[in-house]
Specification:
- By secondary structure, the chain is mainly alpha-helical.
- It is 69% helix and 1% strand.
- The chain is built from 15 helices and two strands.
- A two-stranded antiparallel ribbon has the order 1-2.
- A hairpin with a 3-residue loop joins β1 and β2.
- α4 runs parallel beside α7.
- The chain is globular and about 75 Å long.
């Protein structure tokens, strides 16, 4: 990721490097002590700003009551690391906050819909979002009340900030983005309750949405500083190839590293299991290899989309592309979100956010 790459350059930069060509020589305009000093100052100053933003988000998490929720994972620092690792410039502070808060809700609601809530309560939650109505909260259990009140207040605030930046009301847009997301969560909950294993194509059609990367990007894009017309939004919208490839690659890398653990917890649908259902003659190892091939091809296509989508503002293109990349980093060696305390991702978070360069 760009921020980690920058740190690596700083730590390996040699102001007195000797270069070797046909002879040995030094290049003072490239290897320069002042450049290194400025790079360290810049990195540490931006890192300090990031830590201040992270403190604000922790306060939001605690004041919203989410620390009282026993069914979900608290991964505020790891999630904030995602936008900080690629959209790190100070002027994107609001976008980082929106990205992190939205991502935290995708984790909370994924855990809620995946294993904690009953189908009736989940449908009540989805209906409350659709109607944008606090009056239904009284019918919810306590933990779901906390979720919905926090959700309602947070996205009203995000919509107000989006209105100021976009010059138009964006609450309806945000609500529609979430309706699609909750519909995907609900379908997975219904599959799980019925012990239904869909076909691979049916699974991917829903799972590329339920991975929730599209929801995070579409809402965060409103705070990048770019004025987004309906035409631009359509180029990174639910029907765009660009967004689909981001969701597809994110889902596949997630599934390849989590499907065995989730199967042990009773989950019946994953890309690997669904592909094996379609092709009962192949082994699990062959199915996994095929899923990796699909993902590699999709990543190649995603690269082409990133290069060719010149009609989309650069910041929005970065948002889509780098979100796909951060998923590859989180799940490179395992479930880097759930098991972050035992994974290499812990070192990445520390180097990006907490450990200054010396």
């Amino acid at each position: 990721m760009p921020r980690l790459e920058a740190r690596s350059y700083i730590e390996n930069y040699g102001p007195n490097d000797v270069w070797l060509g046909k002879t040995m020589y030094m290049m003072p305009n490239i290897s320069n002590e002042k450049y290194l000093e400025l790079a360290k100052l810049d990195f540490n100053r931006v890192q300090f700003l990031h830590r201040q933003e992270l403190q604000d988000i922790r306060r939001w998490w605690n004041s919203s009551g989410f620390s009282e929720l026993g069914f979900t994972r608290e991964r505020v620092a790891e999630i904030y690391f995602s936008p900080a690792s690629f959209l790190f410039e100070p002027e994107f502070a609001t976008c980082r906050a929106v990205y992190t808060k939205t991502s935290n809700f995708t984790v909370i609601l994924d855990d809620l819909y995946d294993a904690h809530g009953t189908l009736d309560n989940l449908k009540l939650f989805s209906e409350s979002v659709k109607r944008w109505d606090l009056s239904l909260v009284d019918q919810m259990p306590q933990d779901m009340k906390i979720c919905f009140k926090g959700f309602y207040n947070t996205f009203n605030e995000i919509a107000e900030e989006g209105r100021k930046r976009q010059g138009r009301d964006v609450l309806g847009y945000i609500r529609k983005v979430w309706e699609v997301q909750l519909g995907a969560y609900t379908k997975e909950a219904e599959w799980s309750a019925a012990r239904y294993v869909p076909s691979y194509d049916e699974y991917i059609g829903n799972a590329s949405v339920s991975i929730a990367l599209g929801t995070v990007v579409l809402i965060s894009a409103l705070s990048t500083g770019e004025i987004l017309t309906d035409d631009i939004l359509s180029k990174i919208g639910r029907d765009s190839r660009f967004l689909y490839l981001m969701g597809l690659t994110g889902r596949l890398v997630n599934d390849t590293k989590t499907y065995q653990a989730e199967r042990g917890q009773g989950e019946v649908a994953s890309a690997v299991q669904c592909y094996m259902k379609d092709h009962p003659e192949i082994s699990e190892e062959e199915a996994l290899k095929h899923v990796y091939t699909i993902m590699d091809n999709a990543l190649d296509e995603l690269n082409r989309e990133f290069v060719n989508n010149r009609d989309v503002p650069d910041t929005c293109r970065r948002l889509v592309f780098e979100t796909a990349r951060i998923m590859q980093l989180f799940y490179m060696d395992g479930d880097g979100l759930t098991l972050s305390h035992n994974m290499e991702i812990k070192e990445h978070v520390k180097n990006c956010l907490f450990q200054p360069v010396a």
